[in-house]
Write a structure and sequence with these properties.
- With 346 residues, the protein is α/β, with parallel strands linked by helices.
- The chain has 2 domains: 99 residues, Immunoglobulin-like (Sandwich); 238 residues, Metallo-dependent phosphatases (Purple Acid Phosphatase, chain A, domain 2), CATH 3.60.21.10.
- The chain contains 6 helices and 22 strands.
- The longest helix is centred in the middle third of the chain and has 15 residues.
Length: 346
């Protein structure tokens, strides 16, 4: 996935694939100026087969980004595709960036993971969890869910004494995650936790490898998987060089974005929220306005189960002992299909 560092494709990207139905336009965001010399060409690719996209310019997105809308020229079978863009004779590919949906989405099988922590501090040492994460990826591919969502803390930021890890160690974790999570065969969505973009010196490395807006602003987003609306909140936390917290989610703008996102969602849609955690317990104050059906999170203990129950929100907390939970969502009903503890992964 490191090749995306030089790519002008800003969205969609491999940890935020765009669902696409035959009648919809694919939103495509390129770096501003990338297509000044000649209009871009785009196609979906799977193996040697390709499906062209007809591109039209979209609304301006400011000085750094340019929007385009792509429509399939001919029908593509449901599945996960690479996005290929040609600009001025050069070809750029964002792997696994577009998910073509079936004509009818009757239900959603969703695998929720969190707190992978490639290097996890214990009381005695840093635990290398690469072997267990590889086993987790193998299990995910065997289960074949419709989507996989990882709600943050893919890496570790400190040692057993809570001292920041060296920048080279953090960058190594990011490279490892980018290489191996790209082996997940289902569409993958990743939200940010309090370890992933913690330090200014390694923040660019995260966004270069994993995708996203970057900079010093949260990267919230939502996608519609048929009648299922998935809202992804960035639960960032920024620390200084001594591992002292300087800022964390959610900002007032994020909460306003979430309310607007839910207000714009079809009233019959099933609304699922994903975030690493609600550190400051801000969501209960706006739950009456969101109409959520499920809230998936990790990080620590359960947040406010009574409050979620009062608003008929399924509590999707993933305990630290679990590596994975698979749920089946049909309409507004959520059913747990399988839970996999870390100890079962070696």
């Amino acid at each position: 996935m490191s090749a995306r560092r030089r790519s002008p494709i800003r969205r969609p990207f491999w940890t935020r694939p765009a669902p696409l139905r035959a009648e919809d336009a694919l939103p495509l965001v390129l770096a501003a100026g990338a297509a000044d010399a000649a209009p871009p060409e785009a196609r979906l690719r799977r193996g040697r087969a390709a499906w062209p996209l007809a591109l039209t310019p979209g609304e301006p997105l400011g000085p750094e980004r340019a929007a385009w809308a792509g429509r399939l020229v001919e029908e593509a079978p449901p599945g996960l595709y690479d996005l290929e863009v040609r600009i001025g004779g050069r070809r750029y590919t964002e792997r696994r960036a577009v998910a073509v949906l079936p004509e009818r989405v009757a239900g959603l099988t969703l695998a929720h993971c969190s707190d992978l922590h490639v290097l996890k501090p214990t009381a005695e040492a840093l635990e290398d969890r690469t072997g267990r994460i590889l086993a987790l990826i193998e299990r995910l591919n065997a289960l074949r869910p419709d989507v996989v969502v990882v709600t943050g803390d893919l890496i570790g930021r400190y040692d057993p004494a809570k001292r920041p890890l060296p920048a080279k160690t953090i960058r190594w974790q990011i490279r490892w995650v980018a290489e191996h999570l790209g082996e997940i065969e289902a569409p993958l969505y990743v939200t940010i936790g309090n370890h992933d973009v913690a330090f200014r010196g390694t923040r660019k490395a995260w966004y270069a490898a994993m995708g996203g807006a970057g900079g010093e602003r949260p990267d919230d987003a939502s996608v519609d998987w048929g009648p299922y609306h998935l809202s992804l909140l960035d639960a960032f936390a920024y620390y200084d060089g001594r591992n002292v917290l300087r800022a964390s989610a959610f900002t007032a703008d994020q909460l306003a974005w979430l309310r607007a996102d839910m207000a714009a969602t079809h009233p019959d849609a099933t609304r699922l929220l994903f975030a690493h955690y609600d550190y400051h317990r801000q969501l209960p104050g706006i739950l009456p306005f969101l109409g959520l059906d499920g809230f998936f999170y990790g990080h620590s203990g359960p947040l406010y189960p009574e409050e979620l129950e009062r608003h008929a929100v399924w509590d999707g907390h993933l305990p630290a002992a679990l590596a994975l939970r698979v749920v089946r969502v049909v309409g507004k009903a959520v059913e747990v299909r399988e839970s996999v503890p870390w100890r079962a992964l070696g």
